[in-house]
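re: ur question from yesterday

yeah so i grabbed the chain u mentioned. its 279 aa long if i counted rite. heres the sequnce exactly as i have it in my notes:
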Amino acid sequence: MTIVDINIPPSSLQGVDAYRGVTAKFCLLDWKLQQQEPQKVPMFNDLMRQSKMCDSTMITVDLWDIAKQARAYDDQLTASNEILAVPPTGVVFHESRCGSTLTANALAGFSPDHSRVYSESSVQLHALMACDKNPCNPTLHRHLIQDVFYLSGRTVRKERPQYVFYKISSIGSLFVDKFTEAFPNVPWMYLYRDTVEVMQSHLAPASVGGIVRSRDRPVCLRQQAQPIQPAPTVQIAQSKQRDPASLSREEYCATHLVRICTWIFICMETECGLDGFLS
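ran it thru and got these structure tokens back, copy pasting raw so excuse formatting
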């Protein structure tokens, strides 16, 4: 069973001793689809959609309780080596439209029987973003992130993965410091390319049924209606004293991409450190 979704109520991380009310969904995924042809399940949602038993095996549990029980159970079986909980081998953060999916497929394919890749799963992203709009206890947030990645790396299958990689959605780059606080020694990388080229890729017209039209919802515009709070040291749209919702498509896309890239490099040099960064 694989963790495939989490729900984090606004007040769940405001306690002292434990986070409460966070639920997680698990289902049976066919990881062999990724082993055989990773390019056919390039995103985690593709893997879920093509796993025929996911819907029929879906269960919802309390995350704090299941993580605690799983760790206790695993500790009992450590000697027999029946369960292997693989810590994150490496994490890919990215600007978007820069080759991150190709990188994820390469990681999945370099040793198919012994590697697993979570490519833009919402579970890890939501865990990293859990304190974005709501006050929370940083210690509990760190525990939540660690529990999510622990459960994600847990398996009982015979062809056990020795490597578990994660490609986080591009917006997750704004929360890389949350990851490094939880896993200071796990290597991570940031992929990017010329931002003008990335913008062109986002905003280029799409052909639908032979008809060329503007993309309804480019990735770089998804947060325009409800923008995520910018990183503390990065203020772009606000410096112009304009409501982000009033920016043109091109202006907002540029603001979004620059915010991600600026924050990631500030983070690399200062607040997040370089210990885990793969140069």
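noticed a couple things. Residues 2-213 form one domain. also DSSP finds ten helices and eleven strands in the chain.
anyway ttyl
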